[in-house]
Amino acid sequence: MEIDILGIDLAKQVFQLHGADQRGRPVHRAKVSRGSLLEAVRTLNPRMVVMEACSTAHHWARRFQSLGIEVRLISPQYVSPFVKTNKNDRNDAEAIVEAASRPAMRFVTVKSVEQQDIQAAHRMRAVLIRHRTAMINQMRGLLGERGLTISRSPEAFKRAIPELLSKSADELTSFCQTLLTDLMQHLKAIEERVQLIEASIQSFMKQSALCKKIAEVPGIGPITATAMVAAVGDAKQFRNGRHLAAWLGLVPRQYSSGGKPRLHGISRRGDTYLRTLLIHGARAVLRYATNKVDPQSIWLQQLIARRGHNCAAVALANKNARVIQALLSSDSTYIARNAAV
Q1: How much is the pLDDT for 169?
Q2: Angstrom distance (rounded) from CA 269 to CA 254
Q3: Phi and psi based region of residue 255 (left: phi greater than 0; alpha: psi -120 to 50; beta: remaining)
Q4: Rounded mean pLDDT of the chain?
Q5: How far is 320 from 249, CA to CA, in rounded Å?
Q6: What is the CATH number for 67?
């Protein structure tokens, strides 16, 4: 029995296998436990192993690659159209093989352990920032019930709290002041943890040549650079820069029919976190582009006049994504066009 493609439906304990030959005919179906999955794949020795790019997929992909087997990961949204009749593990494994057999199928690059470390740092930082925002909003709500209002900015909030606690004794009882003091200490602990994670991200930045290279692009800082390298890698899986911009959801959403093109707002597909970082970085560039006379600043000034500030920020984020793809997929370096017009 020669298996050309082996599809694996990943799970926590029980994995469904579906093997097919070169003609696509099923030649093997089995269920294996977690402990015996690696040995079962080694015994079958397929030419290619295909899985959905979901939880634990990159871990198993690295384990199978260590056996000398080609591994490909498919986004789950591309597998679901191939599921026949009812959805179950057996049909899912068969659909994975069917999707992988399509010549125009797009695959996900297997991430290294270092890439997943950087992503873990970014995920923890995002969680802590959400907790910090929730904590500040909770304290602002408690103070609002006492007729005290504070700006939404975290910096303004931290500056205003000591004065409010000292001058509002008529509205803030001793119990409420103690409660707010405890919440401030908890907020301080969260910010200290955020600073530790950002220090780890800075160390990743210093060790990665790819991160340093794309950080030269205006609007790309250490946070964005490390997040892009962790998610994209060398970007060679994208044929050109527009493919990366489309993968990030920074291109117009198209709904065309009958030869009539219809373009709407950005599609917002892909990773929301990366798209947010690129757009926020573009907004930072727009703040200082008003009085500059370099080609990019002039282009941004004209774009803001025609389409507004938000469209200009998205356009610059799209352009930066294309530049990042060109830098990551080649040995070239970023050269800024600073010649005055």
Answers
A1: 66
A2: 12
A3: beta
A4: 92
A5: 13
A6: 3.30.420.10
